[in-house]
UniProtKB/TrEMBL annotation:
Domain of life: Archaea
DNA-binding residues (ranges): 33-52
SUPFAM superfamilies listed in its UniProt record: Homeodomain-like, Tetracyclin repressor-like, C-terminal domain
Domain HTH tetR-type, residue spans: 10-70
UniProt keyword terms in alphabetical order: DNA-binding
InterPro entries per record: DNA-bd_HTH_TetR-type_CS, Homeodomain-like_sf, HTH-type_Tx_Regulator, HTH_TetR, Tet_transcr_reg_TetR-rel_C_sf
A Pfam family per the record: TetR_N
UniProt name for this protein: HTH tetR-type domain-containing protein
Gene3D superfamilies assigned: Tetracycline Repressor, domain 2 (1.10.357.10)
GO molecular function annotation: DNA binding
């Protein structure tokens, strides 16, 4: 069995993190071991310890990796998209191809209940999530694409709650087709009916 992981340091760490995600998705944080991660990579246990001093350090890196990957959807360029388009981009982050990330994310939620540090980190991440959606809704209102009667913060929390709830069910038993259908229905119900008809003056759109 090789003693080292092929590739440069950053590439080697990425391979370890990905292997850890695979194992955690299958076995959970508690049952994941450095030995199993090393076996998955086909290297010695010492090769993993060369990059990560212990399991906790590796788990922390996995946590950070998933957060950073998810946050890429928050880039300002998406602010030019409609709320519907943004939500579809967001939804696709945890698509059927990312079922492992879904499982690991909810493992992170469970871990946060036992760790103040992880709880604070996850709470900040989710509040950033809410803030991003709130800002996009406010932009849509400013551009007269959404009704002013919508409270941006309330709707942002509803979106995040629905998003997490659907994906929690999908990790348990909900099929991907059903998951997609529910999300599409949610988008249509929450936003399409509240969009302002650009052909109708705003003062008339509310009384139409």
């Amino acid at each position: 069995m090789p003693k080292v992981i092929p590739g440069y340091k950053d590439d080697a760490k990425r391979k370890i993190i990905q292997a850890a995600i695979d194992v955690i998705a299958e076995r959970g944080f508690a049952l994941t071991t450095i030995d199993e991660i090393a076996t998955r990579l086909g290297v010695s246990k010492g090769a993993v310890y060369w990059y990560f001093p212990n399991k906790d350090a590796l788990v922390k890196e996995v946590y950070t990796y998933i957060e950073e990957d998810f946050k890429r959807v928050h880039y300002k360029k998406y602010y030019n998209q409609s709320i519907n388009k943004f939500l579809q981009i967001l939804f696709n982050k945890f698509s059927s191809n990312d079922y492992k990330l879904r499982r690991v994310f909810f493992e992170m939620v469970a871990l946060a209940q036992r760790s103040t540090i992880e709880k604070n980190s996850l709470s900040k991440f989710l509040m950033d999530f809410v803030q991003t959606i709130k800002e996009i809704i406010e932009i849509e209102q400013k551009n007269h694409q959404l009704d002013d009667d919508i409270d941006p913060e309330t709707f942002a929390f509803l979106v995040v709650s629905q998003y997490l709830g659907i994906h929690l069910l999908s990790t348990l038993w909900l099929s991907q087709d059903k998951t997609d259908k529910i999300w599409d229905g949610f988008e249509s119900h929450m936003f399409t009916k509240n969009q302002v008809d650009s052909k109708v003056p705003k003062t008339q759109s509310k009384t139409k």
